[in-house]
Amino acid sequence: MDDLIQVSGLKKYYPITSGVLKRVTGHYKAVDDVSFSIGYGQTFGLVGESGCGKTTVGKSILRLIEPTDGQILLEGKDLRAMNSAQLRSARKDMQIIFQDPYSSLNPRMTVMELISEPMKLHNLASGSELQDRVCNLLETVGLSRIEMKKYPHEFSGGQRQRIMIARALSVQPKIIVCDEPVSALDVSIQAQILNLMKELQQNLGIAYLFIAHGMPVVKHISHQVGVMYLGKLVEVADSESIFSNCLHPYTQALMSAVPIPDPDVKRKTMIIKGEVPNLAEKQEGCLFAGRCSRCTARCREEAPILREVESGHQVACHCV
Amino acid sequence: MKQETNQEYLLEIKDLTTAFLFDGKPVPVTVNVSYGIKKGEILGIVGESGSGKSVTVKSVLRLLPSPPSSILNGEIYFHGQNLLTLKEKEMQKIRGNKISMIFQEPMTSLNPVYTCGNQITETIMLHQHLSKEEALKKAARMLDLVGIPAPESRLKSYPHQLSGGMRQRVMIAMALSCEPELLIADEPTTALDPTIQAQIITLIKELRDSIGLSVMYITHDLAVVAEICDRVVVMYAGMVMEIAEIRDLFHAPLHPYTQGLMQAMPRINQQSEMLYNIPGMVPHATQMPTGCRFQPRCPYATEVCSQACPELVDAGDGHMVRCFHYEKLRKERVQNG
Amino acid sequence: MKYESNFRKTVKKFFRRKLAVVGLVICLVMLFVAIMGPSLSSYSPSETVVEDRYQPPSSVHLFGTDDLGRDMFARILDGARITVAVGVGSTCIALVAGTLLGLLAGFFGGVFDTVISCFMDALWAFPAIILALAINTVLGPSLLNIFIAIGVVYIPDFFRIVRSRTITIRELEYVIGARAIGQNSISILWHYVLPNMSSTLIVQTTLCCAKAVIAEASLSFLGLGVPLPMASWGSMLKSGYPLLERAPWLSLFPGICIMLLVLGLNFLGDGLRDALDVRIRDD
Amino acid sequence: MAKKIVRKVLLMLPVLFLVSIILFTLMEVLPGDAAYGLGSDVSDEYIQQFREEHGLDKPAYVRYLDWVTNMLKGDFGVSLISGLPIIDRIKVRFPVTLELTLLSMIVAVVIAIPAGILSAVKRNTLPDYLTSVLAMVGVTIPPFWLGMLMVLLFSITLGWLPASGYVELTESVSENLTRMIMPALALGTQFAATVTRQTRSAFLETLDQDYIVTAKAKGLPQRVVIWKHALRNALIPIVTTIGMQTGRLFGGAVVIETVFTLPGIGREIVNSILLRDYPVVMALIMIVAFIVIVINTLIDIIHGLIDPRISQSQQR
């Protein structure tokens, strides 16, 4: 019972239809058998390229997308078994912030309304107490209480992301799912938000599921990192060893693609050859096999499963 | 301040001030921007949103719609010709032929209703007066050059049938099809995944080496700059803040903004608890601070910074910087080793 | 709804457009006339003066007199009431029904959406006037039935716009975020989806009003509009048309009034479209 | 592509079914049936006989099924008033309406699309203002009133054109056209104005797209940028508008045919409603709705031809 969230065998399939009558002819496996867990006050980083299913994982955990299969335990309680009333109260413990700060806040609500809404909904505060709490939250995320009457469009991207964080914090969640929270921000603003998130974690003990496509950012903020490729987790390790000792060929390619801000370091970029397989078709073997330099006959026939190769380091590859 | 154009440069921008309409009034978004690019060089233009980096290069090809934009001041010399005074007809002979451009969004930059082949051959037939068959052959060669497998069949593809990386390659093939002297790349990899970004960067470097192309590479990512560029122009709030050779910039940045940007980046090869952060945010074009434009966010700012705007000066070896206190930064660095 | 902070910006933008202001003025004048009616004239719209038949426009009878010697100006003032009422009333019906169905279909999707959408496609397939004719015949002649007949015709217009906007907004992150904090669907529809399409609705309502005015005029012109003795501008055109050669003013003035009202509504709609366009205004 | 077309055509069926249901229900709830329209001076036996003869005594669903199956066989029933087969009347009336709508459509499209493009390309210049004002007037003027004004000017005042009547095309082309030109213009003006406005805004939107900047950056002359790169993309929303407006055209035809006393389908519908000749009303409205649905389906198919993204199977 030491984990806050335990995800096992999470699947999300979308039916593929074809023909005049739109018969279901197959499934698009957006997320296929993903398992991981997040401890209290920990950050689990989820990296992968666009279309790898990382956002679907994030939303499925909150049941914002209904998973096809799998188990999601929040402090031992099965979220998928909950009815809508139970789920509503469970949502107090889980919040989400999004990538695009421009579309993630209702443009017709003031900052006060935005931040107080979750608290009102869960009957956490009312009247002047509500007002005080909103002020405190604004201060916590580095905004002043004068901003309370303003609307989202009067703020810059970074400030909006702060409002979003304050809104998420208002119900004192145990975990926040962060879906690319800094990808749309400028470098200098990105650093401010990352620092804020780290501070909040230290002070409040919140856990994060941090979803991003940029390796450096994920590595900076996460304790543990999971790498996704085409709906599957291919490698999970703590953030230090994923950088210094990554084992999966895809992770290695991903790492080598990260530009290093030092003109004297000449990295060797591993260029991934070959086409991304079409997930709409039935796939045999390892999904990365067609693009992998170390591919063997076994890789083409048998899909590797995620297994522990070192303490706390899991890889899904036959060659490791 | 008018002088002879610098012979060293293939293209030179001088004192370019471009304005946009805000509430009906023209407000400058770039102020007295001056820099040049040498033959065979990859010049990086770095800055955050609102720095005016993209506006400047679009002014070079005169691609900004007017209104709302207008060029208030400045010259852009290409082979001794001022592009800003050319007739539209003459400008058309330069665009896509001598200078070409690729854009940030490969998804929307290709016309969805025509095949890639159609769009590439169109340029070739226009500028090189080749027949349809010859143009198709050349287009296939170009696709091959940018690393697209099975080029003949790809020519018949529509843009929506290609992935983002492929589309950007098609854009590059199209841009290079008339052997231009200069390629302007406006955030060409920002919308792409890291592994695709690495491929495109490698491709551009190879092209520079193999066909001696000059590239103006616009990006907000200093790490990408370190990968690909020979020289860098750092812009902030519509002004050039620093111009330096790549090593000088990374080892000895002289502008507090450049220094801040470098420290604010999370690095994959370093572990740090907290990142340095530049306080505040980029000012809007209509609300520029007095004096130095970076002064409200600058840790080195003094009285003088809010009173006057510093000039872009040579701090030695062609390292240009726009700051009153660059000597102080240099000294600090020497002290810290 | 919460416009307060955007309000001034929008108003400023609106008033910067001359045509929009012209449209607003026309609409306000028409509304005023419709409310005040014949009391603005010294003549009665129904008083027949046999010796004053077929008087051309003059200082005595501003818009002339008709075949029964009634003052056309007074009649037009009287007709404004009917025309404006039909325009507003039927638009309200279309607005409420179309929006409600569109919201539900777009938000919940599924079988409900398929059925309603198909039904709306079917309604859409009837040319407007013909459908209104048919409904009006079924319901029988009365003012309320004209509201309904024309209102039903324009339900698909609202339905389509609201449904597609709802589908767009439904996928926006702030709506997903609202579900993440535990908001229920009704609350999301009311507080998140509806307010964010209000500008679209306002514009569409204005333009629909213009269409309804023309539809009413057409129906009345065919003799299937408002029942006698009520007279809208459309039915005045009907009675004026056979006398086109003898007394063209009987056909001119009601027509000009209809066109003016429709023009005003269109100017207003276009002005609002520009002023409210969130995409342009935001950042 | 073929599959998509088949699918589109099949999708017409449920809509057609619903149209027939709506229509039948509307006629069903009408106060009194056709026998009611015979007047009060006929005997009860006659009414009874009349009802049996026309199957009015059968339950509603049986009559619905009869109606639909007969229609599928091409039998639209007989008029209650004249006792003649409706199909004969359709054969006479339909060409008139078809000529009227086609004529106004052609006039409109030929003028509207170039005008819209001109307006967009020369934005904020005199030609743009002129086009925009004309288009606005065209949108706001009630078509039947425009017809009346034309009659007043060209027939009554100038005496150039006949105000009413119809001469068949096969009889005399010139006579036919002199009688059709005013109705076609009156009907087509609103259509043309709407298409002009849509063309203008679609073009402005297209000219804002990234690929237009790309085309300019390639050094293409303005002419190629507009006629090659912008036109085909802008056509997509324009075609939609044309499709939607066609439905309105048929509605407008009802009124215009009354103004110019043309013996078309529209006037026939109005007359039949007034005479409570419901089989005729139902048959005619069904045909008009069918045409509108077919046109909308055609528009969908044309979309696929213009836009390769629609016609080819989606790839992820």
Polypeptide structure, described:
The complex is a heterotetramer of chains A (about 325), B (about 325), C (about 280) and D (about 325). Chain A is an alpha/beta fold and about 325 residues long. Chain A is built from ten helices and twelve strands. Chain A has a single domain (about 5-260, about 265-285), classed as P-loop containing nucleotide triphosphate hydrolases (Rossmann fold), CATH 3.40.50. In chain A, strand 9 and strand 10 (about 230-240) form a beta hairpin. The two termini of chain A are about 30 Å apart. The model of chain A has no long low-confidence stretch (mean pLDDT about 90). Chain C is mainly α. Chain C has twelve helices and no strands. Chain C starts with a helix and ends with a helix. The interface between C and D is large, with 39 and 47 residues.
Condensed summary:
Chain B has 337 residues and is α/β, with parallel strands linked by helices. Chain B has helices at 53-60, 88-94, 106-109, 116-128, 132-145, 151-154, 164-176, 194-211, 222-228, 246-251, 256-264, 303-307, 326-335; strands at residues 9-22, 25-38, 42-46, 69-78, 81-82, 99-102, 182-186, 214-219, 231-236, 239-245, 313-314, 320-321.
Shape of chain C: elongated
Structural category of chain C:
mainly alpha
Mean pLDDT across every amino acid position of chain C:
83
CA-atom Rg of chain C in angstroms: 22 Å
Which sheet architecture does the biggest sheet of chain B show? 8 strands, mixed
Helix content of chain B: 25-40%
Q: State the shape of chain B.
A: globular
**Distinct helical segment count of chain C:** 12
Number of strands of chain C: 0
Element pattern of chain C in H and E: HHHHHHHHHHHH
End-to-end separation of chain B in angstroms reads: 39 Å
How would you write the strand order of the largest sheet of chain B? 6-7-8-3-9-10-12-11
Structure characteristics:
heterotetramer, A: 320 residues, alpha/beta, Rossmann fold, eight-stranded mixed beta sheet, D: 316 residues, mainly alpha, MetI-like fold, globular
Secondary structure blueprint with pairings:
The complex is a heterotetramer of chains A (320), B (337), C (283) and D (316).
Chain A: E1 3-18, E2 23-39, E3 43-47, H1 54-61, E4 69-74, E5 77-78, H2 84-90, E6 94-97, H3 111-121, H4 127-140, H5 157-169, E7 175-179, H6 187-204, E8 207-212, H7 215-221, E9 224-229, E10 232-238, H8 239-244, H9 249-256, H10 297-301, E11 307-310, E12 313-315
Helix pairs in contact in A: 3-4, 3-5, 4-5
Chain B: E1 9-22, E2 25-38, E3 42-46, H1 53-60, E4 69-78, E5 81-82, H2 88-94, E6 99-102, H3 106-109, H4 116-128, H5 132-145, H6 151-154, H7 164-176, E7 182-186, H8 194-211, E8 214-219, H9 222-228, E9 231-236, E10 239-245, H10 246-251, H11 256-264, H12 303-307, E11 313-314, E12 320-321, H13 326-335
Chain D: H1 2-28, H2 44-53, H3 60-72, H4 86-121, H5 126-140, H6 143-157, H7 173-207, H8 210-217, H9 222-259, H10 265-275, H11 278-306, H12 308-311
